[in-house]
TrEMBL record:
This is HTH luxR-type domain-containing protein. Keywords: Transcription, Transcription regulation. It holds the Pfam family GerE. GO terms for molecular function: DNA binding.
Length: 274
């Protein structure tokens, strides 16, 4: 089991909620919701065209891989029924994570890649509030505009690189569960993802990472595989992009682990993004 003792004990993160919002801000949001024609019984949320969805997924593919791998590392800490949402800076859903039956139910109400989670498209939600405030946000049960979401609590955290929001990660679970327990978990996901994304979007990018690999005497091929592994790519994806067999990729990764003195993907990622 992965233990994040320091993070799990922290309670000092600033959080936005309906209770912390000024009356004039809520009034402005309510006007947007009303002008958009949203009401509590709306059962289908607006979604982009298939073409636009494909464009979004392609342009954010590396980002999605990084976030999914960080979310996966957290799954063992969550023993409750839940699902994750990854949205782009404009509030468009890029990916969902959860059990198949939950995802199937979400698809029935038009929630999936391309669904719009802004105030005017879905009303009060943690994603919309995080977008509006720039903060980690919590929306509880009946605070949601849409009846669809009133059985759950949700918490959303922005993902930033160089001070610029790159995405939002949202976690939703049963309304009976106090959402504050998830604040350090979501902040941990954000911090780890931001470190990894910084290697590509900010700093010296690939060159800096390759310099760190050089300290462990990695060969050119090993650096290529290690870099893609650090980005969150799978063995199959690496094999396809480098024209290698999956077996070869796994063999190279085993050698990389030996040279860098790690024994897991999580340990490898933390070694080169910490």
């Amino acid at each position: 089991m992965i233990i994040f003792a320091d993070w799990l004990q922290r309670t000092d993160y600033p959080v936005a909620s309906i209770a912390t919002m000024e009356h004039q801000v809520l009034k402005k949001w309510d006007e947007q919701i009303k002008s958009a024609g949203l009401h509590r019984d709306t059962v289908r949320i607006s979604r982009l065209s298939p073409e636009r969805i494909r464009e979004k997924l392609v342009s954010h593919s590396a980002l999605i891989r990084v976030l999914l791998s960080e979310i996966e590392a957290m799954q063992e800490l969550l023993y409750i029924t839940h699902f994750f949402v990854i949205a782009d800076p404009s509030g468009v859903i890029l990916e969902l994570g959860g059990k198949d039956d939950i995802l199937q139910n979400l698809r029935l109400i038009n929630i999936g890649p391309g669904t719009l989670c802004t105030i005017k498209h879905s009303g009060y939600s943690a994603i919309a509030m995080a977008m509006e405030t720039g903060m980690t946000a919590i929306v509880r049960g009946n605070e949601h505009t849409l009846q669809l979401f009133r059985d759950g609590n949700c918490i959303c955290v922005p993902i930033r690189v160089g001070g610029v929001v790159q995405a939002y990660v949202n976690l939703m679970f049963a309304v009976e569960i106090d959402p504050t327990f998830a604040i350090p978990l979501l902040r941990y996901i954000a911090t780890q993802a931001e470190k990894r994304l910084q290697a590509d979007i900010g700093g010296g990018g690939r060159e800096d990472v390759y310099d760190r690999f050089a300290a462990y005497q990695l060969t050119g091929r090993q650096k290529e595989v290690a870099y893609k592994w650090l980005q969150g790519q799978t063995c199959v994806q690496i094999a396809q992009s480098l024209y290698l067999s999956v077996h070869t990729v796994r063999t190279v990764l085993k050698t990389i682990y030996e040279k860098t003195a790690v024994n897991s993907k999580v340990a490898f990622i933390r070694k080169f993004t910490g």
